[in-house]
Amino acid sequence: MSGKKRAKKGIESIEKQIEIHKGKLRKAEGEGNVGLMKYYEKEIQNFDRVKEKLKRRIKPKSKRKR
Predict the structure, then answer these.
(1) Backbone angles phi, psi at 17, to 5 degrees
(2) Are 27 and 60 in contact (CB under 8 A)?
């Protein structure tokens, strides 16, 4: 499997994880659990960072920002 194909699969997987965590965040908000809310917000931010790194890997080398 090529690097680009693996990166695309990784992005899909991360997007699924983000949706799962957003659902759990909404549930924690409904319960008023501040600690869990902060945890899920931080996790979502981390997933977004990883997703951006993978998106950069898909771009041609001449178009990448470093």
Answers:
(1) -65, -40
(2) no
- Residue 65, in any domain of the structure: no
Cα separation, 48 vs 13, whole angstroms: 12
pLDDT tens across 5-61, in order? Answer: 898 999 999 999 999 999 999 999 999 999 999 999 999 999 999 999 999 888 877
* Structural domain count of the chain: 1
- Is the pTM of the predicted complex or chain greater than 0.85? no
How many CB atoms within 10 Å of residue 6?
Answer: 12
Let me know: does 21 contact 40? Beta carbons within 8 Å. yes
Q: Please give the sequence-ordered ranges of beta strands (E in DSSP) within the chain, or none if there are none.
A: none
